[in-house]
Amino acid sequence: MSSNPLVQFVPYSSAVEAAFWHTLSTRKIDLYKLDDTSHDILGYYSTGHTITSQHATEANISMPARLCLGTGAFDDVNAASFSRLPPFSYPSIGTIKNTNTIEDFKVLDKNALFKEITEQIWQDINSGKAVKNPYLLTRFLLITFADLKKYKYHYWFGFPALVTETSWNVAKNGEIKVISDLWESKDIERFRENYDLFRQKQSCANAGFFLVKRSNDNEIMIGGLSEFDTFFEGCDSDEKIVGFADPSSLPTNPGWPLRNLLVLLQRRWNVYKIKILCYREIPGKKDISQTCILSVEIPNTAKISDECPKGVGWEKNSQGKLGPRSADLAPLMDPTRLADTSVDLNLKLMRWRIVPNLQLEKIRETKCLLLGAGTLGCYVARCLLGWGVRHITFVDNARVSFSNPVRQPLFFFEDSLEGGKLKAQTAAENLKKVYPGSITEGHNISIPMPGHPITSESQTRSDVEKITQLVDSHDVIFLLMDSRESRWLPTLLGASMRKLVINTALGFDTYVVMRHGVKDLDSASKLTGASSSKMPEVKQLGCYFCNDIVAPTDSLKDRTLDQQCTVTRPGLSAIASAYAVELMVSVLHHEKGPVAPADTINDPGSTDISTSTPLGIIPHQIRGFLTNFNNLLIVGQAYDKCTACSDKILEEYKSNGFEFLKRVFDSPTYLEELTGLAKLHQESEAAGDFVWDEEDNEL
Amino acid sequence: MTNTLTQTYLKQYPFLTRQEFEIAAKSFLEQSKKSVREDGGDLWVWNEHEKLKGFGYLSRKSIIQKLKSESLNENFTFITTDDENFEQVEEELEDPSTLNIASETTEYLTVDYHIIYSTSYKVPVLYFNTYHKDGTPLTNDEIYSCLIEPSRLEDIKTAGFHGGISQQDHPTLLIPFYYLHPCETATLMKSIVDKPQSTILNSNNNNLLNGEIPIEGYIRSWLSLVGNVVGLKVGIGYFL
């Protein structure tokens, strides 16, 4: 007999529904609080089977022997809660021990808890409770620690199986076989029908363990475990069949519940050899063809002492080792993560439905520096969030004033109290309230300006350093300040580091939104200007200062208050900011990025629908006029005497650095001398007879 | 034939009222029970709203095989992890009667499917959530790579009649669920019915002539078109 192989049982594989973790969390918070005593929980299992893949290309798969915990796991254990279990499943009662801290979880005397459950099963076998209610044979243990802040759940299942001194073997000629190899199909069908009736009578609770025999008139009969003594009266030992709902789906091995059932049979009725029916059905399909039958035996000398046997059955983790698992439910329960998912999905819809080539990942990774956290800065930031941009940095040196919140959508009345909070930092804080996933910070820095002489050299030096470092660490620089000359330094830095610079400026009812040109280093390509054949060739697109023939100087001096504050129609800023962001997004979609040539007019009547980006054309400058509600697209060429982006200036900055900047801040006319603008002035004055208009004079 | 005896037509095909939805849903439930042999359809359940009458929905749970996708990128990580550095439990000797199963051989997913009425669109909406075996949900990317059949991926992305996948709170359970956006459902349901030029325009009973689908067949027809995108099949048994 010893040559016969051991019966090897398929252990359970735990399956926990998200709803269970939800319920555990709420109960911990509202009900248990700091009480960490054990509680009963209700699990369930179904019979094992293979499932047909829903995808035609894949083969059928065997399901693991799952012990599941679902929504109703914390309901009181009674007939009503049993009836709420999913159809075709069998109850299993567990004990949950949820610790208060991770440390408690670690040092918990796990063996003692496991032993408690093992002893309970043993007692139920001896007292006969398990005969009346055989589902008690499947008791299990669950130890958990719920990290409610991180929505992370540490857990470990134990499924105690009693281990007797002698192990069960497969009986001679009793190898496991599918039912159709042993039974005629009409018998299988009769069995299925009778078992269904039996199950209905037992209302599932105790249908997981049962007796099967053939009556004298060859009918297949089913009985409850408690009928053992009478049911098999007159049967040959070969005709006695004990069945159980088998969670295993392997054609070669029975599942875990059989272990404690065999101990029960041996202990109570001195069974040493028995035929076992492993009931396996495909739920709802009335298909039990995967049911198996085997015979098992144990030497009849084997004794079970009165001592509780030891138990085995801790679940292994996904590495196949004995240890706890953890489940991260943050994507489902952490509001921040949910916001991430939803924003992401929303944008993806746009890509899938409208613009298949939309580069959402590129937009998302783009780091944006917003110089100015006023009306423009706030609107630009909100609009960037809409596109899924995460990295948004604000620079401003002002405080929130009482007039700000109504026009600047990242500030609230409270922010303007007690002298007002710092705008840059407050904008960043509030942006995080809009979208916690944003990576944002505010810097309180004054941007040094030409014609605004330095008062503290060390301060100016550190401001310049900070701004230089910020421009360097971002991809797109938005110029959103309220004065012209404060744009000079970032324009220079942007040109020098070849960044995409988007500039927005407002009049009362006019605005300009433009991108600064970046020189194409690819000398082979001279075609960097306007792509329209109607336009003269443009070598490099201009910057904000390219059309000036004077250097920027203190525009705030000698002005009345209403001139110093930007007085604009309130809707203008939202319009211009939106254009600025959309311009950035379009440029990001061009293969040349900031170097991309300017498109001018896209004739709506034109049949030519090809545009330079999937989103359409990319202009150089958008000039808007609210009086007529229209826009003009304008292309401006880079000016070789430009005070901000010309080669002369960039070279001077490269070789003299801060010393150069310092001279400019002290005396803006230095820029005119350097670029040759001063000479130009002299020449034109000598020529005499025309007047320079100080207004912008575009192409 | 369930639909020969009691055929009711919608007042405003392809739109349903909430009452019509409930009738449609319960007819679907009947069909699913009858199709048991074919599809295991018995697993659909009608759930009443805890407080509001007439706000119920259909649900079922499915276990499906996890698709192995080559397109799965590297930054894809399994959420299911083990706890490191925990003292292990002593299980003295390896128990010879325990079958040693190669760990985590079978990859399967649990999907909760819910069919819920949309007040705004006046059509049924298919909600779903997909979980790993420990209850952790699939990420957006995992849903596309593990749940949606590759041949359907383009379809869902260009959002033909499936309308694309979005996420929002389940109207009754108030937990986040994915759903197939219903914006194209009415168009879809309209497009599948024959539209012969009806001459009896003012007749009250021209629905049949228009080939409209009766209430009783609405959900199975709709679900058979949209469900298989997310692994939910409506077998022939529902139509017998």
Q: Any overview of this molecule?
A:
The complex is a heterodimer of chains A (699) and B (240). Chain A is of the alpha/beta class and 699 residues long. Chain A has two domains: 13-331, Ubiquitin-like modifier-activating enzyme ATG7 N-terminal domain (Cytidine Deaminase, domain 2, 3-Layer(aba) Sandwich); 337-687, NAD(P)-binding Rossmann-like Domain (Rossmann fold), CATH 3.40.50.720. Helix content of chain A is 32%, strand content 20%. Chain A has 21 helices and 25 strands. In chain A, the strands form five sheets. Chain A has an eight-stranded mixed beta sheet, with helices on both faces. In chain A, helix 13 packs across helix 18 (570-588), helix 15 (457-472) crosses helix 16 (488-497) and helix 19 runs antiparallel to helix 20. The longest helix of chain A has 20 residues, at 647-666. The termini of chain A are far apart. Chain B is an alpha+beta fold and 240 residues long. Chain B has a single domain (18-64, 106-239), classed as Yope Regulator, Chain: A. In chain B, strands 1-2-4-5-7-6 form a six-stranded antiparallel beta sheet, with helices on one face. Chain B is globular and about 65 Å long. In chain B, 36% of the residues are buried. The model of chain B is unreliable at 69-80 and 196-203 (pLDDT under 50). Classes of the chains: A alpha/beta (699), B alpha+beta (240). Chains A and B meet through strand 1, helix 1, strand 4, helix 4 and strand 8 of A and helix 2, strand 2, strand 3 and strand 6 of B. Strand 17 (325-328) of chain A pairs antiparallel with strand 3 of chain B, so a sheet runs across the interface.
